Amino acid sequence: MSPPTRSSISFRGSSQIISEFFEYSVNSILYQRGIYPSDDFKSVKKYGLTLLVTHDEDIKAYIRKFMTQLHKWIINDKVSTFVLVIVNKNTGETVERWQFNIAINQEEEGEQSKQKSIEDIQREIQAIIRQITASVTFLPTLEVNDYTFNILVYADSSVNLPNNNEWIDSQDSKLVNNSESVKFKSFSTNEHKIDTLVSYKLDK
User: In this protein, which residues make up the domain named HORMA (predicted)?
Assistant: First the structure.
């Protein structure tokens, strides 16, 4: 019997794919937007691409801690949106807002599900990562060390926040004033669909 060409991805497996995508996307954005010096990043292979990820232990631990918690919330279908905002250190103004919307795939009644292969999913993720890389061609130039980043999660009101000071309830959506928005390609598993959008401050 020939080996199957498609594999069923569980809800947990789909959640893991999304969490990894967010982690590599955050690293790519921080590198491409020059939030930290290029020397703080190293090359890794992922999705058939060469990606840049931080090797600064503090930043790496910070991102990983958030992604671990986010993964738990995605598994339990408690998150609808993940946001990375880039903020001017001096003024506190949000200059870029990277928004990733998470939707559960709804199968129509009587529709037979077609299992999506890992290879197909990775090709879709490749396309988004390439768009993030190419975004420097239209996004305003940011000076290194003048900006920092924050992570926002739109979660169900029933979620329990971890017992630390790193997650807090916020009424501030960190929107960009006088902004332009660009929608990127999406990717999907059998369980989820992720849409990506970046909003950025227009030059006056």
Answer: 12-198
